[in-house]
Automatic annotation (TrEMBL), chain A:
Keywords: ATP-binding, DNA-binding, Helicase, Hydrolase, Nucleotide-binding. One of its GO terms (molecular function) is DNA binding. The keyword Cytoplasm does not apply. Gene3D superfamilies: P-loop containing nucleotide triphosphate hydrolases. Signal peptide: none annotated. GO terms for biological process: DNA recombination; DNA replication initiation; double-strand break repair. This is ComF operon protein A, DNA transporter ATPase. The keyword Glycoprotein does not apply. Pfam families: Helicase_C, ResIII. Residues 132-284 form the Helicase ATP-binding domain. Residues 317-463 form the Helicase C-terminal domain.
From TrEMBL, chain B:
It comes from the Bacteria. It holds the Pfam family Pribosyltran. Residues 138-229 form the Phosphoribosyltransferase domain. Gene3D superfamilies: 3.40.50.2020. SUPFAM superfamilies: PRTase-like. Belongs to the ComF/GntX family. This is ComF family protein.
């Protein structure tokens, strides 16, 4: 019995560390867990709770009735409800219990953790100081930085300050590729600091370290862990409208902690809050290379869907593509949905067989992206912003069907933000082909113009 | 409506048939539905796998089964609904291993149709059981979930003891090792026609092991209806 051998209880505590997990995922016996609960070392609570309108999943925050289902549960012998939203992390049903440690976690101070000899631009420097102050004050701050502003470096001074105090820093982002791409950069900047990288399939997921980089899903493991929480909402299209990230963040950070949001495209509500002074924000309106953002041009292309059905592209769209091919300039062509992607790709392959189409879930996505990067693919038809690493230096971008609902202001700003990222090629063509201009398109354009104006006013653009 | 698998909204097309017979609308969007590949055309008479027109009426696997004196005539036939393509593998992983039970609803109509076409009401439905350990781990038995889709009662006449996961053994090893199935109590099997229900028919060893137990207890004949022919 465990009560006679209390040594096994701290083992459970140190194994669990800052994680909150379903009870059946713990490699400990029922008696051991029971003893730890009785000693108040760990706390246990139901995985699903009943609300006035249905259920709430306590792990992922899901309350959408369509994402719950029930099954005849062999464990509890009743018709058991379960959450379909976070199923990939192991099923949470109404008879599942979540377990977490109640004691404070051990902390570790790091002397002069930052080893980075890069320099920040003036605009980056201002934002970096604001972030550092917010972290030290344990307050909230939004960093609104245009695509290509150089957001990651801005965080370094703030993270260093937190680590010196012995605080734990978590950085969350919706996408696995971003986590994997950021890891080596952080390892280089903080070489002596224990760093854990959490994504589906990584060995380190759930391991608590001074510095944790995590995807949204994996962040759901952490409970009251981080003193400084940074949310890189990223070039998140089409992932931006994800309430789970917000919930995961609220659970993973300590009650007394700072919260830093990084985004290129804050929601309209947030933009209003900033304008009214209700939300603290540091705005970086210029790219690191000091050239203005390329402004989208609208071009009407008629009923392009009908034309596609007849096996033809609108003439001006085809002309745009042919022009890029003739010039030898690489380009992205965004379309709203997979069906259209297939149709458009087929038509364009008649013009140039090297053209490929890639959608968000395509299994061969990475290969095609690599081919594009190597210059073997002149034009990529796609439904989604690809990996962040795909900052191909010199490209043009067009959207076919920019009036579609999927192309929100932020999606369009992100798409336009692919162009002119490199200092050597700071300009390029951004074309929105549409069958009827929408408010979102107008807002996206205005957003970009406003950023350029602000950059000019603050003297951040090159003369 | 939102698709049960991809969660994207779609407009189910209501046909006259559905209005007249009050059939349920499809829970999947046309795209997801279209990725499943139904088995049709010419079949192996025994295991129900699709065959080319020119081939003999039994597939190579089933010819080999027939040569086996001990196991050749244990099963009258197997019929399956779907081919085990990449899409189906993904869906099965989500349904069975991640435990998204409700996905079984996507198979309700095709599975019931296959039951009516190849078997019928004079067959007694017996789902392939899981061992108590596996059942606890998974939370539900996928074969029972399929059996419950059929508009007839199902009978829990079989039990199973725990053995290591089958895929790790060779065919001969699997055949020779002790049969994991046994009768639950003393069910009234004598002279009955029984159809076993399972998710996947791969080598046919599982259903034959189960069929043998039922035949030895007096069943008249035993067939199998499986969702997938791998």
């Amino acid at each position: 019995m465990c009560i006679q051998r209390p040594s096994c209880v701290p083992h459970l505590v140190s194994w669990l560390n800052g994680q909150r997990l379903p009870r059946e995922q713990l490699p400990f016996s029922d008696e051991e867990i029971k003893a730890a609960v009785q000693a108040s070392w760990v706390h246990e609570h139901p995985g699903l709770i009943k609300t006035s309108s249905g259920w709430r999943c306590m792990r992922c925050g899901n309350e959408d009735a369509r994402l719950f289902a029930s099954f005849p549960c062999a464990r509890c012998g009743t018709d058991c409800c379960y959450c379909r939203k976070c199923l990939m992390m192991g099923r949470i049903s109404s008879c599942t219990h979540l377990v977490h440690v109640t004691m404070p976690l051990p902390s570790e101070r790091h002397e002069a953790p930052l080893v980075w000899d890069g320099t920040l631009s003036a605009a980056q420097e201002d934002a970096a100081m604001a972030v550092k102050q917010a972290v030290l004050d344990r307050s909230e701050l939004l960093v609104w930085a245009v695509c290509g502003a150089g957001k990651t470096e801005i965080l370094f001074p703030a993270i260093a300050a937190a680590l010196e105090k012995g605080w734990r820093v978590g950085l969350a982002t919706p996408r696995t590729d971003v986590v994997r791409e950021l890891a080596p950069r952080f390892r280089q900047a903080f070489p002596r600091v224990p760093l854990a990288v959490w994504y589906g399939g990584s060995e380190e997921r759930g391991r608590i370290a001074s510095l944790v980089l995590s995807t949204t899903h994996q962040l759901l493991r952490a409970y009251r862990v981080f003193d400084a929480m940074i949310v890189d909402e990223v070039d998140a299209f089409p992932y931006s409208a994800e309430p789970m990230l917000e919930y995961a963040v609220s659970q993973a950070r300590k009650e007394q902690s700072s919260l830093i949001y990084l985004t290129a495209t804050p929601s309209r509500a947030w933009q209003l809050d900033i304008a009214r002074g209700k939300r603290q924000a540091a705005v970086i309106p210029a790219r690191y290379h000091g050239h203005p953002l390329p402004v989208p041009v609208f071009e009407w292309c008629g009923n392009w869907r009908k034309r596609l059905e007849r096996g033809r592209l609108p003439e001006n769209v085809l002309a745009w593509v042919l022009h890029r091919l003739a010039q030898g300039k690489q380009a992205f062509l965004f379309v709203p949905h997979i069906d259209e992607l297939e149709a458009v790709t087929r038509l364009l392959q008649r013009v140039d067989p090297r053209i490929v189409g890639v959608h968000a879930e395509a299994p061969d996505r990475a290969e095609h992206v690599q081919e594009f990067r190597d210059g073997r693919v002149p034009l990529l038809v796609t439904t989604t912003i690809l990996e962040r690493g795909v900052t191909v230096p010199n490209i043009d971008v067009a959207v076919l069907g920019a009036e579609d609902r999927i192309f929100t202001e932020s999606a369009l700003v992100q798409i336009a933000g692919r162009v002119g990222r490199h200092a050597a090629f700071p300009d390029g063509d951004v074309r929105f082909f549409h069958h009827g201009k929408t408010n979102e398109m107008v807002r996206a354009r205005r957003h970009i113009l406003r950023m350029n104006e602000e950059a000019k006013k603050r003297g951040l653009l090159r003369p | 409506m939102n698709c049960l698998l991809c969660h994207s909204p779609y407009n189910p097309i209501a046909s006259w048939r559905q209005l007249l017979f009050l059939e349920d609308l499809d829970v999947l969007c046309p795209r997801c539905r279209g990725l499943f590949k139904l088995i049709d055309g010419r079949l192996c008479e025994m295991c129900g796998r699709p065959l080319e027109e020119a081939k003999p009426s039994l597939c190579a696997d089933c010819l080999r089964w027939q040569e086996d004196e001990q196991w050749g005539r244990v099963l009258v036939k197997n019929r399956s609904v779907y081919i085990y393509n990449d899409w189906m593998k993904e869906v099965v992983a989500l349904w069975k291993f991640r435990g998204d039970y409700v996905i079984v609803e996507a198979f309700r109509r095709p599975f019931s149709q296959a039951f009516r076409r190849h078997f019928g009401r004079d067959w007694h439905i017996v789902p392939i059981p899981l061992s108590p350990e596996r059942l606890y781990e998974r939370g539900f038995n996928q074969a029972e979930a399929l059996a419950r889709l059929l508009p007839f009662p199902c009978f829990p006449w079989l039990s199973r003891k725990h053995s290591e996961k089958q895929s790790k053994k060779s065919r001969r090893e699997r055949l020779e090792t002790d049969n994991p199935f046994f009768l639950s109590g003393h069910p009234p099997i004598n002279g009955k026609r029984i159809v076993l229900i399972d998710d996947i028919y791969t080598t046919g060893i599982t259903v034959r092991h189960a069929a043998r137990v039922l035949l030895e207890a007096g069943a008249a004949e035993v067939g199998a209806l499986t969702l997938i022919r791998a």
